[in-house]
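Dear colleague,

As promised, here are the two records you asked about, laid out in our usual form so they can be pasted straight into your sheet.

NAME FIELD: protein one
SEQUENCE, THEN STRUCTURE:
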Amino acid sequence: IMMFLCVTVLCLVMGSVIMAMTGVSTTPRMRISTIVQDIVIFILPAIATAVVITRRPADLLLLTRRPGAVITAAALIGTLVSIPAMNHIIDWNASLPLPESLRMAEDQAQESINLLVGNGSWGSLIITLLIVGVLAGLSEELFFRGCMQRILSKSGFGTHGSIWVTAILFSAVHMQFEGFVPRMLLGVWFGYLLVWSGSVWLPIMAHILNNLLAATALWLGMRDPAAGEALSNFGSDSTVLAILSLLLTIIAVITARRNAARCDSNQAAIN
């Protein structure tokens, strides 16, 4: 844990200096800064820590195992069908009162996201999907689930404790407290996917899918605010749809967990 903290702080300082030199005053600069953040602040600490503390860094980060087809389908479908229920939680979280300082941080974070998305052109969509969708999903999962959660689970926190602590920190780092609870729940989902599949690639795929949908909604909102809002808030005004979403999500979770248990049993029999 201490090694991970030291490497993370060092990379955070490095990344902050580079980002300060780059600046975030324009969309291109914001995009460059975001790429620097993902690589230097998230990917680099995870890889550097793994290389330092073990001779098999890829095994520590769970990069070598490929998730099965059934659990992958359950993970991706579960991420999709949970959207209406999550949107209800988002609305509830957003209704909670926030101190003025946190409200300002929330507004600044939203302004940065809008600047990152750009002007709503098709080129902006492709760049946004690559940066916000693919790179962010890959870098954050490698850092939080592949490295942080794995280290915490091996340091006395246990499986469930490491998942929840990592999810809380994952949500807090985004500095968007109106979505703190739903983002934390997403982090918990990603954490269990890591444990059940034994592969960091599964939470990476689920995270990328979630981010691709969010990025598309943001981009669409630049071109057509009504359509963007409809996509972002899909199901939030329907209790029936939210309940159905919750039931389907539970089915997906159970399917993923049972498939993981079946794979564990088969592996034990082989061994």
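NAME FIELD: protein two
SEQUENCE, THEN STRUCTURE:
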Amino acid sequence: MLAVTILGNNSAVPAHGRHPTSQVIQTYDHKFLVDCGEGTQMQMSAYKVRPGKINQIFISHLHGDHYFGLIGLLTSLGLNNRKNEMNIYSPGGLKEIIELQFNVANAHLPYPIHFHVLNEEKIVFEDKKIEIECFRVNHRIECWGFIFREKKNMRRLNPSAIAKHEVPISCYEMLQEGKDYISPGNKIIKNEDLTKEGPHSFSYAFCADTGYFENIICKIKNVDLLYHESTYLDALEEKAVARFHSTAKQAATVAKKANVKKLLLGHFSSMYEDVSDFQKEASEVFENTECALEGVCYLA
């Protein structure tokens, strides 16, 4: 399971009841925070997201609308006597900014923070169930997207087949890992004859601020859920190009070429009070499109 809760879907500044970029990705074992725009912790409170459960924060780039809420969140966690370490993944420079703010305030946190600089496309977090990869996008400054992928689920045992071939319990884990069974008589029983395909492994891609950039298509190919910025409608394509942002139509084009299952649009310009036209425009290119609405949880 991958569940994405939108905390902020606006660009640049808070407007029309919308907030700068921030979202929480939840799995069975983790809560990950992606970007931390102004007002993030207030949005967490409004939507009952417990920040104390977050141990990894991913900051796509160092434009303020994507990290100005971070110092407040980190400070509040300290005031609540957090002890667990925090890991922050971001472009270089964020550590110096945060440490300067704490030093000026003579603040001392009761928990350690580990900063991880993003400098190449690679897997930046991994455990037994999930891996998170960063990839470059095309913005005015260094900027990163992130892919959350559940690892392939273990195969399901076929009880009737296992009983037929008298497979001992000690071999069950091996079978779930996809290995064949060798009987006491040295007969090889194929794994597919003893097991069934495991549950679907879900994937989610977060494409941070970016102009139309086909280089990311190979990275996000076939993901279950894609979040792609769509700052402007297609009538302002020239403005989008000049500012290294995308239109709803361009986001939909990327989604279609990447063969994703569903597209979420976000990072709406404050010049639009009503964002319903974004979905209409994108759906003409890629039908399974929605606008990422604050407070809504989307399942990959």
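A couple of things worth noting about protein two: The longest helix spans residues 94-104. The radius of gyration is 22 Å.

Best,
R.
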